Amino acid sequence: MSSAYLYAAARTPFGRFGGALAGVRPDDLAVVALRGVLDKAPGLDRAAIDDVVWGCANQAGEDNRNVGRMAVLLAGLPVSVPATTVNRLCGSSLDAAMMASRAIETGDADVVVAGGVESMTRAPWVLPKPSRAFPAGDVTAVSTTLGWRLVNDRMPREWTVSLGEANEMLGEKFGISRERQDAFAVRSHALADAAWTDGFYADLVVPVPDTDLTRDEGIRAGSTVEKLATLKPAFRPSGSITAGNASPLNDGASAILLGSEAAADRIGVAPLARVAGRGVAAVEPPMFGYAPVEAARRALSRAGIGWSDVAAVELNEAFAVQSLACVDAWLDEGLADRGLVNAKGGAIAIGHPLGASGGRILGTLTQRLRESGDRWGVAAICIGVGQALAVVLENVG
Mind listing the pLDDT tens digit for each residue in 97-112? Predict the structure, then answer.
């Protein structure tokens, strides 16, 4: 078994729902990320790419029919470069990177591009197909932007609560206050703004042609706990979750270039990080926000390290409450400092275009390890319907 290495990462800026990227098709967003990561390896013969593994959570509109393959063709890569699209909801692009790394480790591939895309703005409304021609009754159009839809009647009702209600339940379970959630959200915005101002994201983010978006659109530099405290609860009249302490709806794409150690000469750049461990876990659907705890535990075990060895963590902030629950658990398990988590901001500020977020956190983690010189980092993401993924990276850059 050989090791899989991360050679480059790139992503688009993340746009707000109905914002600067609203006019860009998801397959075109995917092209931007795909070209962006390959531009970092100009000496790589594009025909030498063994596969492209792409994540997308929706696939109900312009991102249908294998958007990964569509991006390969639209990007002008050789038609001999294959591609597949995978769907593990919010974890789709992290799953894509994990699949790519396994193919490299087993020798099935030497060079693979992984990534993902989501345009939540352009996600269509859908109608259930009638069982017979000319139905007399009304049918309801369903938004495919987020959450459950066209649910099987046999699915237990307690499993199909909204994502927000599920996280209200999680907050009750762990006693996490509204004040802690709002403070966590303010930190996300402040750190993301500082990271952009300091140039941290300059090498990671590639612009989308014909748009004016130069950085992540949802960052609110002036956010304060006092301002967030004025927002009304979004899911329960007396709940703790608001639009200010949860990730927004977004558009964007991300990409990762992975390869074997032997492929370094062909890729033309030195590897940055080794994929040292992977973990996947599942829990009851409403507790999905807490699932990264077990996924990270498994990834660390497979890497042969513990939380005390970890110097950087990228946890996708679906909601402040689930992020706090996970970080609290990791501190109990040996993580040295909560400040190691999302030190360059998180999804509450940066955004969470579902299929692209896993690639974003993996690229950010690599950049953080490269900046600090520390050895070990963890990327983790919770996934609706009760799942989570985690990856351990070892800095080799």
Answer: 999 999 999 999 999 9
Q: Please, are residues 280 and 381 in contact by the beta-carbon 8 Å criterion? A: no
User: What's the domain range around 321?
Assistant: 4-123+248-395
> Which residues are the active-site residues?
90, 352, 382
Beta strands in the chain (DSSP E): 4-11, 15-16, 51-55, 83-86, 111-119, 125-126, 142-143, 250-260, 273-282, 312-315, 376-383, 387-395
Domain count, the chain: 1
Q: For residues 324 and 318, is the Cβ–Cβ distance under 8 A? A: no
Which pLDDT value is given to residue 386?
98
Is residue 116 domain-resident? Answer: yes
C-alpha to C-alpha distance for 231 and 224, rounded to whole angstroms:
12
Give the three-class secondary structure for 69.
helix
Please, are residues 249 and 121 in contact by the beta-carbon 8 Å criterion? yes
Please report, for the domain that includes residue 381, its CATH number.
Answer: 3.40.47.10
Whether 306 is in a domain gets the answer yes
Residue 232's Cβ-side half-sphere holds a number of Cα atoms within 13 Å equal to 4
Using one digit for the tens of pLDDT, what is the confidence trace for 209-256? 999 999 999 999 999 999 999 999 999 999 999 999 999 999 999 999
Q: Is residue 151 part of a domain?
A: no
d(CA 182, CA 225): 6
Q: pTM of this prediction?
A: 0.97
Is residue 384 in a domain? yes
Q: Mean pLDDT of all residues in the chain? A: 97
How many angstroms separate the CA atoms of 391 and 376, rounded?
A: 11
- How many angstroms separate the CA atoms of 27 and 294, rounded? 33
